[in-house]
Design goal:
Blueprint: H1 2-48, H2 59-72, H3 77-104
Helix pairs in contact: 1-3, 2-3
The structure holds prephenic acid.
Protein name: Chorismate mutase
GO biological process, one term: chorismate metabolic process
GO molecular function, one term: chorismate mutase activity
Length: 124
């Protein structure tokens, strides 16, 4: 009797964990897509800023966006969100900077033609 209850209880817990992990997987998929989209938009900002990438990091802007996010995510709060967004923003800047370095690197054996120049008016 006691054993049967225990077994049933364990099954329910396993099932619940599986369900909850399924929900987490779905949210992670959404998060990944959002993070990818955010990184693309952040890279566009870097190209437009007079001083972009890590050199142009704007901590006031970052603090403001974290404070706004904290209103929507009170459980996490500004302190944890600051840690999360530092990584998110840092990753976006790193990818944008690598991309810019790739654009600037001259192709071997070419000194103009063959080198990708980007869109007209675009900053390197
Ligand atoms: O808003 C900017 O100025 C950006 O460069 C974008 C961004 C971001 O990813 O949100 C990146 C770096 C800055 O430190 C602040 C914000």
């Amino acid at each position: 009797m006691h054993d049967r209850h225990h077994a049933t209880g364990t099954e329910n817990v396993d099932e619940r964990i599986r369900d909850l992990r399924g929900r987490i997987d779905l949210m992670d998929a959404e998060l990944a897509e959002l993070l990818e989209r955010r990184a693309l938009v952040a890279a566009q900002v870097q190209r437009l800023k007079p001083v972009g990438y890590f050199a142009g990091r704007d901590m006031t802007r970052e603090r403001e966006l974290v404070e706004r996010m904290a209103e929507r995510a009170p459980r996490l709060g500004a302190e944890h969100l600051a840690t999360i967004m530092d990584s998110v923003i840092g990753a976006g800047l790193a990818v944008a900077q690598e991309e810019a370095a790739g654009r600037d690197r001259p192709r071997s054996g070419t000194s103009g033609p063959g080198r990708r120049t980007g869109r007209p008016g675009e900053r390197p």
